Amino acid sequence: MTASPTPSSPSTPWWKKSVVYQIYPRSFCDSNGDGIGDLPGITQRLDHLAELGVDVVWLSPIYKSPQDDNGYDISDYRDIAPEFGTLADFDALLAAMHARGIRLVMDLVVNHSSDEHAWFQSARTRRDSPYHDYYIWAEPAPGGGPPTNWEAAFNGSVWEWNEPTGEYYLHMFSKKQPDLNWENPALRQEVYALMRFWLDRGVDGFRMDVINMISKPWRADGSLPDAPVVREGFLQPGFALTCNGPRLVEFLREMREQVLDHYDTLTVGEAPMATIEQGIALTHPENGALNMLFQFEHMDLDSQPGHSNGKWALKPLDLRDLKTTLARWQTALDGQGWNSLYLSNHDQPRPVSRFGDDRRYPVESAKMLATWLHGHQGTPYVYQGEELGMDNVAFDDIADYRDIETLNIYRVATQERGVAPRDILRSIHAKGRDNARTPMPWTGEAPGAGFTTGTPWIRLNPGFVRSNAQALRADPQSVFHYYRELIALRKSQPILTDGRFELLLAQDRHVYAYTRTLGDETWLVLCHFGGGEPEGTPRAIDGADDPTWSRWLAQGVQGTRVIGNWPGPERVALAGLTLRPWEALILALD
Ligand code: NOJ
């Protein structure tokens, strides 16, 4: 039977009411024993997603690619990488999703292509190739060497010398990911055509990779400026210049008019260094080109700002920073745009290890973080394995890692910066992208955990023995069933979609509290980020310096429990309320 997808209502489009599940195909499910996840593998596992109740799947890239950056380097935008399957497998997957009422969003990677794309293969051979201008070229700097001082995301200069044409080309990521030249109208038409190719095949939208980097900060004389080196050794100095280029809004509006306006889609733009202003400009309900952005401010709070080691320079999270950041986005975009809500994806460590307690309270803290995230205004994203409470891995040997970013920083840190291997490994254990890329554990059976019958392309997280989809689906108290409940709640309760957000207890270092209000209904979300002091002690809420909280106490306000991760009574008074380790509680206030 065909299930219906979540409908739009007059005031609320479907993508605001949806919960999106991200699949990283390489690590999801391998159907043919080659150790690499594939499309038929995803099709086999769709009941897991249907049971979870998600509305939309975002598929990380499955296109033809040399896999220098696991598919974020595309050599043919209209075909499938053979290790993932065929176009027929894709059509079967899409049909099977639609039959379950699940929509499919593709990854659109058009800030750059692969250097093995036919365009670049031609462009790099001669300056008069029709494709030469699809990419970004520059002469050496006056004294020789790279044209600007920008550093690439995966280390080294963004400029690579191209012998046949005697010039440099720009790559903001690896040298196998040359940046596309959006100033060229023919290139833009190619992008719009490939988007139509997938939309006409039936897909329901796009997650757009680093989309706010497509407009480069060209000067009138056709050159690119050097970036100010803010601090000695400051990493990636070009990024600040390229994340909000002068023609960004214009390009995306053109894309909307020429493509997106003609289809019913979900669009989410990945936007490093996005500001609130950019968030509003790009997602405004009237003239925004996209539905929502992935902004990164909350992903940077546990790194030392401006440190030359970038995200690898660890710093404990101060909960008040998280409050300030998220509350700004929540308040500023209310009615002026739309937020995406995420704590994890294929580039980020596992939230339960990063923001929770994966040793003492793995289940409680995974559920608390889910409640915290899904309670906000915006469209929530669940990254594969998050619904199983998956945690980070700590491989001792760099040879067990696969990610280009991780391997590069290890080499640079140990060979060029004199960092001890164990020190950089500590950062990799905390922040490395492979934390998110270990295979989905479907069962507790060694050696492949139901992911593969072969040798997995990257080692499994050893936790699969107890923490796997089969075990969690069988346990009504599991993280999986808690996510299911949260997702169902979002569908049945408009306050979770439309309610106004307000932060409470801004100065509290341990409790993150906020309300959602719709009409005369108010929900209070209380989340305890911690195990108590001393460990295991319930934490009293001190709201003395918060006028709303004080007023509620004076009025004797009570609420009815909506959901929580510890057992508790139906009716709860705010006076004297304490929170157990990593407790989350949503109350509908009287
Ligand atoms: C962001 C993607 O999420 C990441 O995985 C990739 O390495 C870069 N963009 C480059 O495409």
TrEMBL record:
It comes from the Bacteria. This is Alpha-glucosidase. It comes from Amphibiibacter pelophylacis. The lineage of its organism: Bacteria, Pseudomonadati, Pseudomonadota, Betaproteobacteria, Burkholderiales.
